[in-house]
Model the fold of this input.
Amino acid sequence: MAYARPVVHFEIHGKDPKKLQDFYAQLFGWQIDANNPMSYGFVSPGIGGPEEGVGGGITASPNAPFVTIYVQVESLDDTLKQVESMGGKTLMPPMDVPNGPTVAMFSDPEGNAIGLVKQ
Done:
């Protein structure tokens, strides 16, 4: 019997990784360890997520190709305000997905699009 393989890793790329590491550590409270020869910022797993890994979706988009990660937060509005104060931009204000969660999207200071899901 085949099993669905969980998503277990993500990467956010940028020209100034230290700036992005600081941005996400401050925004989401992520613990990021870049104390290694490549200065690769290892992000520690968070709490409150699904133990079996994260699910996802595959769909068509006029702006394809791209990949988006979604981070669960308590308040979409407060998080978007913090994003804007830290040099990011709101790409999509909070929106209720029919029969689903409430989501939003922002871009970080280097333009990476990141989704948010209301906890």
The mean pLDDT is 89. The longest strand covers residues 89-96. The chain is about 20% helix and 25% strand.
